[in-house]
Amino acid sequence: MNGLRVWLVGFGTVGRWVAGALRAQAAQLETRYGAGVTVIGIGNARDGFVYHPDGLDLGSVLAAAAGGRPITGQPGTRAWPTAIDGLRATEADLLVEVTDSPPGAGEPGLTHMREALRRGIPVVTSNKWPVALHGLELAELARLRGVAFRAESTVMSGTPVLSTLTEGLAGAVPVGLRGLLNATANAILSQMADGTSYEDALAAAQRAGLAERDPAADVAGDDTVAKLMILSALVFGRQLRRDQVACQGITGITGRQARDAAAAGGRLRHVAALAFEGPGGAGTVTARVRPEALPAGDPLASVDGAANALVLQASPVGQIMISGPGAGPQLAGQGVLADIIAVASWQVRKPLSRARSPALDQVLAAGRRLVRLWPEVRHLGDQAAVELEEGHRVAGRAIEEPVEPSHRVPLVGDRELRPQVPVAGVLLVEPQVAVTSPDTLP
After folding, report:
1. C-alpha distances in angstroms, 355 versus 25, 71, 86, 433?
2. Which of 11, 154, 216, 326 has the highest CB neighbour number within 10 Å of its CB?
3. What is the pTM (predicted TM-score) of this model?
4. Are residues 12 and 106 in the same domain?
């Protein structure tokens, strides 16, 4: 049975829920899905990145986080000051990225995901804005590397919408969609229809844990905008800019407006809509988020409380509606867990393998020899021995891409490896020897 070595970056409410679920369900993952999952690295913004090649003690790390202690203080582990430093220095089979990057540039989540995908490592994420702003790029990078990029919980938390639309409806052509994509906004408007003021409905959502102390992202519409951009990129294959989505929040909605819509038999809802001039994301795009009075016959009008719903129009199947709960760390965590299981199950059927670098193919075609790292070394900084084809062994250090010509790697005695040119995936050294990790050896 092949185990899945996991980096977990982001150790807030969602990250801790995922870690707890992986710990509690370890036996079930192996018996039901046929794959073990081992978390070898965990990172957060406060403490940095902690790593153990044989797996971290999740109970100990969770206890440290709950007690306000640094997660990097685990015995027998290595640590780096930032998550990206830890990722670049280690190796894994899957990155689980559950930080909450701000909307400006989607960082640092975007850098974390690019780092993994460029190295042929699958990514599972709940981090909205990197996917909203660069989802098409990330999906294409994953496709080129032949690995998974899964972001289920970025749209409807634990309700499987992305996998349903991209896998369950594979071959169908999406035409357009409408949805209620923010559970907090829907809960507030549902209460207002019953006569509750906006202020009281918001306070109730905050007490229930649906809304943050600063609810701007939910009530102003930014969260829904991000989700609409993700749907455009990952379902329609069309990357949108933030300024292409018209947005109006619910802060200006009055109780009378909500009651009037209810009195007419309908409901006031915060509706996200996406339509294209042509099928499959072609042509002019219309993307908007705004409050709308929906008639009683509209399928979205009957979706009450902290729920999400989406109606997709696709050819040739017609109209499809997906609805489910849409708020809370356990629901976001469940979406992440489902994606982890999907990647782990795929690994059992087809073990993960790194795509061989085109640069390495060129080196091999030129007849250059290989230096094999011995024993297996996965990251820069590990002490190791280098075994030449002739059988000559010298102590050295593992070398990771990319390496510049100015770098020197000292070995035992007066020998050193000296790169002649920087090449992604391999290091050329004198005399005409390519250094690479065992993962990419033919």
Report:
1. 31, 33, 22, 21
2. 326
3. 0.79
4. yes
CATH number, residue 89: 3.40.50.720
Q: Are residues 25 and 135 in the same domain?
A: yes
Assess contact for 199 and 330: CB atoms under 8 A. no
Q: Which domain holds residue 225?
A: 162-324
Annotated active-site residue in 227, 270, 378, 379: 227
Two tokens, residue 217: 């992202």
For the CA atoms of 250, 254, 257, 259, the dihedral, rounded to the nearest 10 degrees, stands at 110
What are the φ and ψ backbone dihedral angles of 284, each rounded to 5 degrees? -65, 140
Radius of gyration of the chain (CA): 25
* Within a domain: 254: yes
For residues 213, 218, 219 and 224, what is the CA-based torsion angle, rounded to 10 degrees?
A: 170
Active site annotation includes 227: yes
Domain count within the chain: 3
> What does the pLDDT look like over 379-391, one tens digit per residue?
333 333 333 333 3
Do 129 and 262 belong together in one domain? no
Q: Is residue 354 in some structural domain?
A: no
Question: Who has greater pLDDT, 166 or 380?
Answer: 166
Residue 310 makes CB contacts below 8 A (sequence gap 6+) with: 156, 161, 177, 178, 179, 180, 181, 231, 321, 322, 323
Structure tokens at 310: 């989406």
Distance CA 191, CA 118 (A): 46
pLDDT range class, residue 326, cuts 50, 70, 90:
confident
Does the pLDDT at position 331 exceed 60? yes
Rounded CA separation 412/406 (Å): 19
Q: What is the mean pLDDT of the chain?
A: 81
Summarised one tens digit per residue, pLDDT across range 337-396 is: 999 999 988 775 554 444 334 443 443 344 333 333 322 333 333 333 333 333 333 333
CATH number of the domain within which 242 lies = 3.30.360.10
